[in-house]
Amino acid sequence: MDFELANEYALRILQGEAKLHEELVTMCIPRLLYLRNTLGFRMIPEAEVVHELAADAVADALFKQETRKLPFTICLHNTFRDLCRSRKNIIRDRHIKDLFETNGIRMSPSLTGGKQPEAVEVQVQNNEIFQLAKDILEDHEPFSKKVVIQKSRGFTYLEMAKTYDKEDKECKRVYWHDMNQLRAIFNSKANN
């Protein structure tokens, strides 16, 4: 991608030349595909980048460029990264929901970001999920179990880092290591 040309097109679009918008989107697609791979968002299909995310990223970058007075290419990088993060979260949540459904466990609204459950049956299912996770993680170190339980209750990595006097990156690493182990065990139980 020619960064200078992209910055020039962006300025011209902001000055009223709307016909250049599609050209700018097409020009940015190879760069966005490169960013998708280098930033670690390979789980997002290439077709989504080409069709949806590229147009959204360019539109958001133009808006940010106008409001923040930064070069277009910097805004493009940042907006695309943010769009990919939100898409990654959607994909991850969908996978977690599928995992719970294939194992016959209904997810409560508290685990999916909704309101706290009011029904006793939902609370019982939540307790069963927590107990199952505790049983699986029984042989893990205490910090590992605490991180999984606190994260499932809605704590952020920063909050846990302050509580346990660790770095937030360490809390995140431990959490995802254990979650991947839990997924593998759930999947093996579902396949048996």
How would you sum up this structure in a few lines?
This protein is an all-alpha fold and 192 residues long.
Detailed description of the structure:
By secondary structure, the chain is an all-alpha fold. The chain folds into two domains: 3-93; 103-191, Arc Repressor Mutant, subunit A (Orthogonal Bundle), CATH 1.10.10. Helices cover 75% and strands 0% of the residues. It contains eight helices and no strands. Helix 2 crosses helix 3 (46-68), helix 6 (142-152) packs across helix 8 and helix 7 (157-164) packs across helix 8 (168-191). The N and C termini lie far apart (50 Å). The model has no long low-confidence stretch (mean pLDDT 76).
**Count of separate structural domains:** 2
Poorly predicted tracts of residues: none
DSSP summary: helix tally = 8
Largest sheet: none
User: pLDDT average, as an integer?
Assistant: 76
End-to-end span in angstroms? Answer: 50 Å
Rg over C-alpha atoms, rounded to the nearest angstrom: 22 Å
Q: How helix-rich are the residues, as a percent range?
A: over 70%
Bin the strand percentage: under 5%
- How many strand segments? 0
What is the H/E order? HHHHHHHH
Shape designation: elongated
Structural class: mainly alpha
